[in-house]
Amino acid sequence: MTEYYQQQLITSKTEIERFSQLINRFSLFRLGVILGGLSLLFLSFKFDNLLLSALIALFIIILFGWLVVKQTGFEKQREYFTARKMVLENELDSIADRGNIYSDGKDFIDDHHQYTSDLDIFGPSSLFQLLNRGATKLGVHELGHWLKSPAEVSVINIRQEAIKELSQKKDWRIHFQTVLVFNLKLDNDIVSNLHHYLKQPIEQHKRLRLYVKAAPFIFLSILICTLLVPKTSIFLLLISLIHAGLIVNNQLYINKTDALIGKIGKTLGAYAEAFKAIENETWQSSLCVHLTDSLTTGTANNISASIKQLSELIKKLDYRLNVYAAMVLNAIFLWDLKQVFAVEDWKESNKANIDEAFHVLAKFETLNSLTSLCVNNPEWVFPTVQESKKYLLEGKELGHPLIPKALRIHNDYSLNHECKIDIITGSNMAGKSTFLRTIGINTVMALCGAPVCARAMHISPVELITYMRIRDSLNESTSTFKAELNRLQMVLDLVPKKENAFFLIDEMLRGTNSVDKYRGSKAVVEKLVACKGVGIVATHDLQIAHLIQKYPSYIRNYYFDIEVRNGTMHFDYKLKAGECKTFNASLLLKQIGVEIDE
């Protein structure tokens, strides 16, 4: 994919330069039209021919207007390719160093969640930061929900099917991200503003609506009379004043509508492009087909056309910002009221469909986010997720997705239709914690429908419960040891209640003395055995590994080892069966100048 991104990036830069040159060229053309047009107009006055002067003026206006329209189109194209360049550069950064311009999901950090805080699911340098490609607030929240809540097997399978299809649509994905990336620069949530407006009751104004429809015909009739009978010009002034009075009298109503949606016209136009991209694509996967079918409005227009229509109506309402244009348009058409009524009519016709449409957009963003893992890491695989009465968790060459590929160590793990507790012992920094997080984070990815960092993975639905990072809390007046007890209580409460609980425990009871630590850890493991709990416990206490003698059919021992050569430690970070025999605390202390008596 790197080559594809680089080629597309070169194309985007070329297009940016091309449209920049066209914009500059047309700016000069406009200046030339103004200067040349004024010169021609000045010369035409010498012929004392009013018709000729009028024709020249009309030609200048038309030509200048055409140049403005063309230049505006070039500016939009430059904006598009600038956004596309940003998206492509971000994909290259993501592959190179896990960088990402999209949200890292820090708002979802929850120390009390069953697993997210321990497994780096949200926040800086997290799984969310790695895969998120959601620019809308709804898209970000949808992805957060998927990562916090494992899906059912049937849902996982249709998500995988959709992601596989999206992974083949490289150009579509980049275009889809490009038309939405502007959201990253917005301070307010445009979609929330629109939803708030749609919930407001529609004001009828039946008589006023009828008059607004008739107003231009009344004005035109009076204008014709004035041209035919100049003495009736007073009526033209009178109708203009009446229309001005109607606008002033309804200013509160007009301003309220403008305040709710007046600033989102251009933004809605971009959303329309995103919906159009979904509607115009040919889908094969059942989920993408279902989501696209959900965008039907029940009217002649599809969602993209409806959103575009609202965008254009809001732009027309914004004509009121030009004082001179507003005076003329309101005098003839009661323009402000005409556009507000048109917006209200749009709301009446479309309010039932818009909420669902933006949730569909959010789901496509989330699918696209998970697809980024697939296309940027082609060596990763989709896990086989299947229902099982017993636990199934098998992984071949499992690696941690947040560790750079060059530094990543892979391990196998197998829990094949069994109920077991695995005790992992090992030296400091040997890889115990990373292995637990590798199991955990790949499980989260598998159960939301994403590919996993492995050569192969088979898994049944499980509910992860973790005990890894323990933090004290000044706000909650909680010491480290109390925080440990609270987390441990959560594990012991949930494991018996959850039919498919799978726990990951890293070094229990760190906040107490070694004797109580061992006795407490031993008691916890035995309680987990008694309630037929399943999971992995990592510990420095070799005595915990001795529990295999008491529960030989339920406990398995694994370890991470080190090799000491000439006083230097060498880690291979590979999981092995059995108990750890080598420890390194004294060597580590010696490296910082602390000698330990033998």
UniProtKB/TrEMBL annotation:
<keyword id="KW-0547">Nucleotide-binding</keyword>
<dbReference type="GO" id="GO:0140664">
    <property type="term" value="F:ATP-dependent DNA damage sensor activity"/>
</dbReference>
<dbReference type="InterPro" id="IPR000432">
    <property type="entry name" value="DNA_mismatch_repair_MutS_C"/>
</dbReference>
<dbReference type="GO" id="GO:0005829">
    <property type="term" value="C:cytosol"/>
</dbReference>
<feature type="domain" description="DNA mismatch repair proteins mutS family">
    <location>
        <begin position="419"/>
        <end position="598"/>
    </location>
</feature>
<protein>
    <submittedName>
        <fullName>DNA mismatch repair protein MutS</fullName>
    </submittedName>
</protein>
<dbReference type="InterPro" id="IPR027417">
    <property type="entry name" value="P-loop_NTPase"/>
</dbReference>
<keyword id="KW-0472">Membrane</keyword>
<keyword id="KW-0238">DNA-binding</keyword>
<dbReference type="GO" id="GO:0006298">
    <property type="term" value="P:mismatch repair"/>
</dbReference>
<feature type="transmembrane region" description="Helical">
    <location>
        <begin position="51"/>
        <end position="69"/>
    </location>
</feature>
<dbReference type="GO" id="GO:0030983">
    <property type="term" value="F:mismatched DNA binding"/>
</dbReference>
<dbReference type="InterPro" id="IPR036187">
    <property type="entry name" value="DNA_mismatch_repair_MutS_sf"/>
</dbReference>
<dbReference type="InterPro" id="IPR045076">
    <property type="entry name" value="MutS"/>
</dbReference>
<keyword id="KW-0067">ATP-binding</keyword>
<dbReference type="GO" id="GO:0005524">
    <property type="term" value="F:ATP binding"/>
</dbReference>
<feature type="transmembrane region" description="Helical">
    <location>
        <begin position="210"/>
        <end position="229"/>
    </location>
</feature>
<feature type="transmembrane region" description="Helical">
    <location>
        <begin position="28"/>
        <end position="45"/>
    </location>
</feature>
<keyword id="KW-0812">Transmembrane</keyword>
<dbReference type="Pfam" id="PF00488">
    <property type="entry name" value="MutS_V"/>
</dbReference>
<keyword id="KW-1133">Transmembrane helix</keyword>
